[in-house]
Amino acid sequence: MINTKCNSGAKINFKVRDITKISLLSAIAFLLMVFAEFPLPLFPSFLKFDLSDLPALIGGFAMGPVTGIIIEFIKNLLHFFFKSETGGVGNLANFIVGIGFVVPAAVVYSTNKTKKGAVIGMAVGTVTMTLLASLANYYVLIPLYAKVYSMDAILNMMSQANKAIVDLKTYIVYAVIPFNVLKAVVVSIITLLIYKKVSPILHR
After folding, report:
1. Closest Cα partner for 90 from 101, 77, 105?
2. Are 117 and 108 in contact (CB under 8 A)?
3. Residues 6 or more apart from 105 whose CB is under 8 A from it?
4. Residues 176, 131, 101, CA angle at the centre, nearest 5°?
5. In this predicted structure, what is the pLDDT of residue 163?
6. Taking residues 90-105, what's their average pLDDT?
């Protein structure tokens, strides 16, 4: 058994079987991120849709929000070493947005472990994720991308995908917000469909 402490000082115990489950969920998340990501029409090509937050959300529901954070971190760490094409900026974005969705959802669900609690948690996670993604893209991520490439090149890529995108603000409105809402809704629906089927395995 491995003991860690969260900021509140409460102990979080991870047994060997828990570490095995986290490792498996992280591996699935990584594979989904690598082999099942694809661009969507009307969105810049660097905004790739994938379901890699699904294992993190399921792990967060079954084992707590810290587990969700760990899965998001391992997934992005593996992706950074094996496939990153953005110097880690894309992985930072994915991690920030991912925990913005998974952690609030898992925290709410932990206080009310019912279908209603799950729906409320994922709705809260969707709002938090979208808000965090908007702020992170505007103030941190796109400026970092601009250092790797250039702001002109990035804006050109955005406008090619969607003519309504002419600057950073319109990128947030026409790309970041709808993209993250869509992603969160799809992940939420799949979670509702499969969680009760896989949760017995994760609770063994």
Report:
1. 77
2. yes
3. 57, 60, 61, 118, 121, 122, 124, 125
4. 95
5. 94
6. 93
- Count of residues for the chain? 204
Q: Are 174 and 165 in contact (CB under 8 A)?
A: yes
DSSP classification of residue 101? H
Both tokens of 114, joined, read 């019912």
CA-based nearest residue to 46, from 135, 165, 126:
165
User: Could you tell me what percent of the chain has a pLDDT over 70?
Assistant: 92
User: Which DSSP state fits 10?
Assistant: -
3 sits in which H/E element: strand 2-5
Q: How many Cβ atoms from other residues are within 10 Å of residue 204's Cβ? A: 6
Q: Which amino acid is at 66?
A: V
**Structure tokens, 163:** 């003519």
User: pLDDT (tens digit, 9 = 90+) per residue, 3-43?
Assistant: 555 444 444 556 888 899 999 999 999 999 999 889 999 99
The C-alpha atoms of residue 103 and residue 86 are separated, in whole angstroms, by: 25
Tokens of 146: 């601009």
How does the average pLDDT of the chain come out, rounded?
89
